[in-house]
Amino acid sequence: MTVQATTFNHGFSEEQIALKQSAIEFTKREVTPHLDQWEKDGEIPREFQKKLAHAGLLGVGVPEEVGGDGGDLMDACAMQEGFMEAGWSGGLMASAYTHGIAIPHIVANGSKELIDTYVRPVLSGDMIGSLGITEPGTGSDVAGITTKAVRDGDEWVINGAKMFITSSVRGDFVTTACRTGGEGAHGISLIVVPKGTPGFSVSRKLDKMGWLASDTGELTYEDVRVPVTNLVGQENHGFYYIADQFVTERIWLALLGYGHALRCLNLTAQYCRDRETFGKPLLANQVVRAKLTEMHRQVAVARTYTLEVAQRYIAGEQVIAEACLAKQTAVDTAVWVADQAVQLHGGMGYMRESEVERHYRDVRLLPIGGGATEVLTDLAARLLGYAK
C-alpha cells in the first residue's frame, strides 16, 4: 500500500505552487534517472545547467534585466522545495545552484562589463561560477582572510589560497575575496578570477563524506594577474557585499535542511508501511508512529519559520539574526530526522542503496557550511542584545 506523501503548499501563491510542481516534474525527467551516477562521478555534467536554463529554472529569483527568469525569493523557495521533495541530493543542489552565491554580489554591485561577461552566461547555462571566501586558516572568519591582492598598474596581483570551494573544479571563474587594504573587515574586496589565468589553479579536488555530486576544490593563487576592472563594486567594500548576501544564503541552507527532512519523512513513512516485522507492518507499532509524527512536526515548524523569515526579508526587514536561527532550526531538524529515518529503516538504512543513507551523509554538512551553528548562534545573540 502506498502512503500518501506529505507535502506543504501553504504560504505559496497558485503560481508558486505551479512552479514547485514544474520543479518536481523536471526532476522526474532529468534528475532521478541519473542522480546515482552523478554521485558516483563526483560531479554533475555541464549540460545540466543548460537543461535547467531551458526549463526556466536556472535564474528564478534573479532580475530579468541581467539575464535571470525574474521572481523573488519566495519563488526561489517554492522551486527549491519542489526539487528537494522530489529527491535531489545536497551535492546536486549545491553544484547546480552555486551561482546563488557566486553572482549576487556582481548583480548588485558589479559593472555592466562584469554582468555581461559573467552573470548572463551563467544564467544561460554557458558558464559556471563559484565563490572563494573560506581559507585553510580562517574558516567562518570572513574578516580574517589573508589572500592578498595588490594593485600593479591596470592589474591586480593576487596571492593566497582558498579551501572548500564548491563548483571550483569544473567552474569557469571564482568571485574571490581578497585583502586589498588593512586588517579586518574594512580591507576586503571581491575580485573575479577567470579559470585559465596564469598562476591560478585547483590544487586538488577534495573528497567528502557527503555532497558527493558536488565538485569541491582547494585553490591556489600565485602571482595571479587580472584586470582592475574585475573588481566588484568599490575597493575595500567586499566584506559588506558578502554580508548583504548572507541572509539569502542562510535561508537557502534552511530550505535545504527541511527539504532533506521532508524527503526522509516520506521515504520512511512508505518503508514503515511496506516493511513487516513479527507478522505486522512497522507502522503498526506505536513507537514508530510517534517517531513519524515527531518528524512531521519538526519539518512543519522548520518550514514555517524559514518561509516567514524569507517573507520578512522580501518586505525589507532586517532579519540577520532570524536567518541565523531559521538555519539552525532547519538544519537541526534535518540532522535529527535523517538519523531517525536511518534508524527506522534498520540495516537497510545503513546501505548505500538506500536513499536515506545519502541524506544522512548530506545533512551533516549543514550545521557547518554557510557559518557554523556555534558562530551563527553567537552572532544572533549579539544582534538580539544578549551579549555584552
TrEMBL record:
E.C. number(s) listed in UniProt = 1.3.8.7
InterPro entries in UniProt: Acyl-CoA_DH_CS, Acyl-CoA_Oxase/DH_mid-dom, Acyl-CoA_Oxase/DH_mid-dom_sf, AcylCo_DH-like_C, AcylCo_DH/oxidase_C, AcylCoA_DH/ox_N, AcylCoA_DH/ox_N_sf, AcylCoA_DH/oxidase_NM_dom_sf
**What protein does this entry describe?**
Acyl-CoA dehydrogenase
Domain named Acyl-CoA dehydrogenase/oxidase N-terminal: residues: 13-126
Q: Which UniProt keywords apply?
A: FAD, Flavoprotein, Oxidoreductase
Co-factor requirement:
FAD
Family stated for the protein in its record: Belongs to the acyl-CoA dehydrogenase family.
Q: What single Pfam family name could you report for this chain, choosing any that match?
A: Acyl-CoA_dh_M
Q: What does the record give under GO molecular function?
A: flavin adenine dinucleotide binding; medium-chain fatty acyl-CoA dehydrogenase activity
Record-annotated Acyl-CoA dehydrogenase/oxidase C-terminal domain positions: 236-382
Tell me which species this is from.
Nocardioides thalensis
